[in-house]
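Request: Have a read of the protein record below and say how the chain folds.
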Amino acid sequence: MSSSVEQIKEKLSIVDVISSYLKLEKAGGNYKAVCPFHNEKSPSFMISPERGMWHCFGCQKGGDAYSFLMEYEHMDFPEALRTLA
């Protein structure tokens, strides 16, 4: 199962996944957005396409495309895996 998890992650761009939920701004080689997981006015939610990871410097949440979908859509891991597949 972990090999299919990695294959799906490799084929998807974390920027494409998250940009379907949030308005992203280019910030150097990364992207930033207002965090959907806590109330804020200036963007502290950062996405690194190179690492395939996201992190919020305000609420300290972070992870990959799966963890974003699980947190945002309140899904469990199998649901997030099916959605991204």
